[in-house]
Amino acid sequence: MTSARVAVKKIRCHAPENVELALREFWALSSIKSQHPNVIHLEECILQKDGMVQKMSHGSSSSLYLQLVETSLKGEIVFDPRSAYYLWFVMDFCDGGDMNEYLLSRKPNRKTNTSFMLQLSSALAFLHKNQIIHRDLKPDNILISQSRMDASDLEPTLKVADFGLSKVCSASGQNPEEPVNVNKCFLSTACGTDFYMAPEVWEGHYTAKADIFALGIIIWAMLERITFIDTETKKELLGSYVKQGAAIVPVGEALLENPKMELLIPVKKKSMNAQMKQLIKEMLAANPQDRPDAFELELRLVNIAFKDSSWDT
């Protein structure tokens, strides 16, 4: 037995929407064959029906699991509604809250910013390599683990979490063995959180490049400490936006209305690293084909972070 601390997430499967969110998270996290330090790790998933429990596995033929899949597909409960169904996710324990709480309770720090950008780009490259499009990247869904910070100069570890809206792009067509290119896997369900949604998501025809856009919003907001107040929760959240008169408008929505709109970067600071400014502009390009993919993004951020080192030799 180990004494490692874990987090347990309990989801009540009492409505088709809950079942779909839970299954999406399970499918995404259980499809990953290896671990990544910046992606939340699913230790195990337990399915409970009343007093009976069973371990869930990907592609299980268990009748309870198949009832949940059918519920998700049909959009209606297919099991006895008098029974209580729950999914229990056993995951990494993160002791530092989320990215919003962590950054907004501290003074801006260049070293932290650099570390967070590198960790997030590495996580996204890993997810896209594993054919997973997250679709809801935002600071609320990025958790902080401080437990392994032994030395005072170490930055905390970020963990991309909450895969309830994620999509695993499966192989199809003539070469089922060939890895899927997530940048050619088109999705049509408009989902996510307004301020982080790419223009094409608002339209309902998008690929993994929508994740790049969301990360662009996050990185820009982190570097300049741009925040807005969530109208529902009244919480201060990191996120960049466009001002139209007194109103603040999500960048993606504004670009959908005017794709030629020039983003003012930086908007608060007097100056910004020229390469960083250019990269953020490309990440937030109205045309998804003009955005870097996750692998190019990771390389470019590494180059910016270590620009004094010679990476050509």
UniProtKB/TrEMBL annotation:
Catalysed reactions, semicolon-separated: L-threonyl-[protein] + ATP = O-phospho-L-threonyl-[protein] + ADP + H(+); L-seryl-[protein] + ATP = O-phospho-L-seryl-[protein] + ADP + H(+)
Enzyme class: transferase
Cellular component, GO annotation: nucleoplasm
A GO molecular function held by the record: protein serine/threonine kinase activity
Location (main, coarse): nucleus
Keywords attached to this entry: ATP-binding, Kinase, Nucleotide-binding, Nucleus, Serine/threonine-protein kinase, Transferase
Keyword Kinase: yes
A Pfam family the protein falls into: Pkinase
PANTHER family: EUKARYOTIC TRANSLATION INITIATION FACTOR 2-ALPHA KINASE EIF2-ALPHA KINASE -RELATED, SERINE_THREONINE-PROTEIN KINASE PDIK1L
Name of the featured protein: non-specific serine/threonine protein kinase
Taxonomy of the source species: Eukaryota, Metazoa, Chordata, Craniata, Vertebrata
Encoding gene (name): PDIK1L
